[in-house]
């Protein structure tokens, strides 16, 4: 039997067919998305079953659907809570205790987080198109829409532009002057990099990379000076530069000379540039020690090749450490170190590890014929001990200069003086085999000391543990009776610099006072004053009270001690006490107003370009062979963003070893040194 829905065939055409079919009324109510109609024996009776609880209800057209809707609302309210009750975000509080808040998906924040992931992890932009990445994002956040590598690159550039404006605002608000470090790096193109250093309003030392771009030929001092001036102008700090720290490249002298002339024209340089140029101290020490080690290459080469021979074979290496452990009872967690020839500090660590395993190496030389050509005699071992003690001073000083938390300028004087003292003592000492090496090192060091001891000494004087007495003591140990001449020159230059800050402070306060009092004067009084000035020329009325007050002020100023004199007369703090020198000057800024301004700028001078060179080390990870097609603006955005994120503390927990994590004991991945030059 045909159902009621079966069309009735007619002889006429399509229109007749359509008119003969009785259309069934569609169920437009949304309740039928959650309900199912049931067939009943009685055709006049209709039923509906809930898809969730399987309850059956009447579904007559006369009954409507209100009762079905009430049921669904009541049931879904019980079972399906608001999804915000289940999706929560843990937000760290200032006290370190996580707090819970309702989570709402933010596509912009998610894209920003992906940009941070790509930048700080040095990942390729193509990562966002990898199936595994998209699978991870789909599981982590189903609402996230996939993006292409081009979109990811645009997001990074937009993120960089926003952060650049924020850093530019920080530089504009910097209460003092700004110190620069600059370095060049050769890859496929020559890249130039500038890093800004300053002390912020909270007296914390800050560092930001402000440029990492390719240079265009010619690569000379004039071209680089033009690039630097343009960069400073774009950042709005061309009149706030105090110093620039450079390596000893020949073109830097031409660049600095050009910069001094430009800054003199703008009156943006202090003391005629006496404190403007600084040579990288760590770079100088690196050159000095490398030059000296070349003369001791025989014994160093034996140790280097011997360690390479032992570590070349895994079986031989295992036997060596077994002998060291079982026969000589040494702690074999300390491994033999191989050096990198271009890093003298790794050579020192190699010598230190060889001395630790000296007895084992001698034992090995007696039993392995192939190793005997690398075995050292007793006299050679004595020379290694002396050489290692000599290099330890340089190594310790360099570790301070090259620390990850870049030190203030006051810490350099003591380290450089120790190097100077060791060189002098070694030349006069009994170790004749070191004499030729040390004399060659002295020639390079004396040139650096003669040019930059002024800046190092002034920074040390502003350390309350050192002051003038410690500087005098250090110069006495070097120059003897002639030390007073050097100290007097340093002190006179420091006074000249301090006078510049006093003048600047007075001009600032007078301009503020003058702007406040411009309209305070009565026009009638002005006319009287003008009349009095004219009459004073021919013996008329003259009130000397104001002139007398000026005379008293000038006399008292001449007889008063300056803030610098008062600071130097106060007793020093304990020499080896642990203090934050910036915190000291922050607390002393009320008492020593102008002197604290000088200390803030002088202590911010970076005596080392390690900050710049670390940027180039990071740049090598950015410009890999697989990413060599990145545009210069993209490379700059990635390098600068990474530095700015680290400055904000983003990577504070990255690299921190957890309690349940084990160190990797694979010797093939030995880290030759934690100090980079």
From TrEMBL:
Keywords from the named record: DNA-binding, Metal-binding, Nucleus, Transcription, Transcription regulation, Zinc, Zinc-finger
GO MF entry, a single one: zinc ion binding
Any single Pfam family the record assigns to this protein: hAT-like_RNase-H
Keyword Chaperone (UniProt): no
Subcellular location: Nucleus
UniProt keyword Transmembrane helix present: no
Positions with biased composition (Acidic residues): 661-677
GO cellular component: nucleus
Highest taxon of the lineage: Eukaryota
Residue ranges of the region described as Disordered: 655-677
Principal location class: nucleus
Domain BED-type, first and last residues per copy: 26-87
InterPro entries: hAT-like_transposase_RNase-H, HATC_C_dom, RNaseH-like_sf, Znf_BED, ZnF_BED_domain_contain, Znf_C2H2_sf
Subunit field text: Homodimer.
Name listed for the protein in its UniProt record: BED-type domain-containing protein
